[in-house]
Amino acid sequence: MNYLKNGDEDLVIVSASLNELLAEYHLYYQKLRNFHWNIHGRNFFELHEKFEELYTDARTKIDEIAERVLTLGYRPMSNLSEYLEIATLAESKSNLPDTEMVKDLLQAHQILILKMYETTEKAEKARDEGTIDLIGAYIRELEKTSWMLAAWNRSGSEYLKEPVLS
C-alpha cells in the first residue's frame, strides 16, 4: 500500500491486532443487544435506552475497525466462528439483574480498553497515526462511559478520591 508509507511487515501486526479488537467488539455488541432485550425491573426504561445507545455506538465502531483493516490493505475477519475463537469476552446470561448487567459491561470495558492499548502500542511501532487516532478516541469514549456506568452502579462518592493539590 504505497499511499500509507509503511512497510507491510509493520502493518500486518497492526491489522492482526485490529482484527482481535473487531472480534471483541462483536461479542460486546451482542452482549449489549442481549441486555437491551432482557432488561427488566425498576431501571428498565433508563437501561433499555442506554444499552441501545451503547450497541448503536458499538455497531459503528465495528464498521470503522473493519474499514481501518481494509485501509491498511488487509481483510477484516467477518465470521462469528472466527470471532468466538479469538475473543476473550464471554457471552452473558440473559437473566441477570440490572446491576449485574452493568458490572458485566464494566468488565467487558476493561478487556476492550486493554486490547485498545495493545493495538495503539503496535500502531505506534508501525508509525500508523491513523490507527492511533481512531483507537485513541475510542479509549477516551469508553473510559467516560465506564465512569458513568460505575457511578450509576454505586452509591454516593465511594469510588472518588480526594482532590490532589500540588
Description:
The chain is an all-alpha fold. Helices cover 71% and strands 0% of the residues. It contains five helices and no strands. The chain has helices at residues 8-38, 44-71, 80-86, 98-125, 129-152. Helix 1 runs antiparallel to helix 2 and helix 4 (98-125) packs antiparallel against helix 5 (129-152). The chain starts with 7 loop residues before the first helix and ends in a 14-residue tail after the last helix. The mean pLDDT is 93.
What is the topology?
Layout: H1 8-38, H2 44-71, H3 80-86, H4 98-125, H5 129-152
H/E element order: HHHHH
- Over all CA atoms, what is the radius of gyration? 18 Å
**Helical percentage:** over 70%
For the biggest sheet, the summary is: none
Q: Please mark out the parts with pLDDT under 50 across 5 or more consecutive residues, or reply none.
A: none
Whole-Å distance between the termini? 48 Å
Structural classification: mainly alpha
| Mean pLDDT across residues | 93
Beta fraction of the residues?
Answer: under 5%
Number of helical segments with 4 or more residues: 5
Shape: globular
DSSP summary, beta strand count: 0
